[in-house]
Amino acid sequence: MTWLILCDAAELAIECGLVLARLGADAETRVELDPLSAARARDWGSARVAFVVQTPPSPEALVELSAAWPADTPPPLLAICSPEQRAIAARDLATDLGIASVTEVSALGSMLSLIEGQPVEPWVASTRTLDSLMRARLGNCFTMGERGAPAIESAGSGLLSHRAGESLRIIGTPRDVREAVESLKAAALPARETMPTVQGVDIAEVLDAIFGPSRELSDPASKRALSHYDIPLPVEDLCTSPSRASAEAARIGFPVRVSLASPDLRVWDHPDLISDGITNGAGVRDVFRQLMAMARDRAPDSRLLGVTVSATEAVHALLGMRLSPLPHGHVLVEIGFADPHGQASEDRTFTLLPANEDHLERALSRLRGVSLILQGRARERRQTLETLADVLLRLGAFVHDCRDYVNAVTVNPLALLVGGDVEIREMSVEVGDAFSRGLEAPDGALSGRKTG
Does the global pTM surpass 0.85? Predict the structure, then answer.
């Protein structure tokens, strides 16, 4: 098997040559200014292609590469040698697109050696001959095969080898082998289907709800636009006076949560503009006045719509999400924690929609705080995954349907309630300039506006 390694730096090409020569891999390395674009534009014959880059590819570049790659050709491999946060995001997205991705040239060498020794399911092998320390370093990345399956053996000097029949190949250190195997396994999930359609949605009505110049919609306006997609919302009401807020709180039932409604002062940027657990009408009226006074003092020119009064529900996790359109029908989604500790730790991950429960579980497992999201027994975890997957697909369907007009949707927070339900508490739709450009068209019409 011949490998072609495309690198974006001469130093990486030299390192690749040294690593692959040590492992005995048959490979040629080349330096390209933009390796991913070069691979899309050329036919490399029977050679398998891998990329080694220090500049993290953009989500758009990864999606274009995946879409352009021939379906009957084994997918490429990728090593992104950068400690940046966006490099981690790029590796996650590449793996979700079926492109096994690692962090080091040495781990890429382990992937190549494993594939050469066993092209199909290289993670199926026995580790019985290894000592307990080596097995602990590998974790559970290898799956025990039937009698006569390949075996992972010690090659001395802290290296491992892969034995398949009479063939014996050095595959690298336990750390590199583990990263290689886990990435290959993760990239082998079934391909994603096309974005589903939410039945009963009148796109013309949705576009009327977001019609206007480039701007961010307020929370109430965003929820009105998304209401066509039947997203889970709390029991709430927008109130423009203290007496109205008090009356609505009594109707909803105490305790209640009161938060400022403004397209200019988002509660996720100003957490002190929200008050939870208010138990009486007088308290609601006082909080209304306090929030409005604080907002006017903080930003005198801000647009203040009033306050949102909503029911208080017990939660076990608060998530923040941002969705934006990508080419070829994909939607990029960033998932993180919306509580102060989660935000401070920058514990977040990226994935692509559409995603079923298995894809979503893999994405969530990359969060250090995943145990806060997927709690309880297997049935409860599965219920949470199903609920989150449904919400994300509805949000993704909106972004996909309105991709010509919507730049992004931010949800912060999405509350995971005790009992298994979820609710979107605050959100914002970022409208692009498509409507303005349409009005400026020669015919004075909204060019490209969807009506069905």
Answer: yes
